[in-house]
Amino acid sequence: RPVRLAAMASRGVFVGNIPYEADEPKLREIFSSVGPVRAIRVQMDPETGKPKGYAFVDYDDIATAESATRNLNGYELGGRSLRVHFASSGRSSGGGGGGGG
What we know:
By secondary structure, the chain is of the alpha+beta class. It contains 3 helices and 6 strands; from the N terminus they run αβαββαβββ.
């Protein structure tokens, strides 16, 4: 039986503590430093249309996503330290999360 790496890790990373003024092109520039970015999804507040302060970045493979978690967690952007870790593999559409600021 093959080991299921996907259970432990995915090709996507969660990025938290993003400054509100950081846009998708800026995030792409940062996250492309470890390898090609397949997609970036900045989460927006549907009521205000403003960013919620977190995003998901998808890479082509687990190794690149792992590199992002190792090398970009704690990266300082706009005076804030980014939190970068593997996104949970169960992609839910909305809900959960909470916390505030």
